[in-house]
Amino acid sequence: MSREGQSEDPRMVIWFDIDNTLYSASTKISHAMGERIHAYFVSMGLQEEEASGLHLKYYIQYGLALRGLMHHHEIDPLEFDRKCDGTLPLEDLIRPDPGLRKLFEDLDRTKVRVWALTNAYKNHANRVLNILNIRDQIEGLVFCDYERPNFTCKPEADFYRNAMMQAGISDPSKCLFVDDSKQNVISAKELGWGRCAHFYEAGLQTMEGGKAKTLGQNGDATAGTDGIVVINNLEELRFVWPDIFSK
Ligand SMILES: [Mg+2]
Predict the structure, then answer these.
(1) Taking the model in full, what pTM does it have?
(2) Structural domains in the chain plus CATH codes
């Protein structure tokens, strides 16, 4: 039973991460994000090296640099968001993707509800979905609520549990999940999410915590992890989970 006391929707929910999942890491958007976060640290009066060190430290410790900034420096998270994600030239980096739209259109909505699950704030999430021309394909968006003190994010279990509450789904085995982060996928699996796909573009560069890394190095693959499929193109979902597509 849902919170409203009505029967729960029997369909599964497929959750899509947004950044570096619905578009490729080859866009280098994560680099542009990293540069802006670095500039924010420097604007607080830190030297370049100090800024890089603290950025990485907070990323590792809190999952998001912003949470460390809020905890230790009492910064305004919405100002941070405006200055970092808000200034990304996304319109120059990504464009509507007809193939991606078709993939979403072909999902069988009698079987799955389609939600997005992001560590970004809602402004950035909606902006990306609108530019990709799939906003109307996403029924619900769970984002990091920067306006709440002590907000959670992936890969923390509470973030996933809260997402399920928002979507009104109580059975974790009915959750399907696609994300480019190994740790995010493993956390979902540990919570019992039924099917998880690690979107993994080996060989491409991304940036995490202000540090560039090449995918495929340092054990970031989930190959061989029980119950997790690895895909390097979202089209592969049609083959690994054929039952949720109508064509
Ligand atoms: Mg991602």
Answers:
(1) 0.92
(2) 12-26+95-244 (3.40.50.1000)
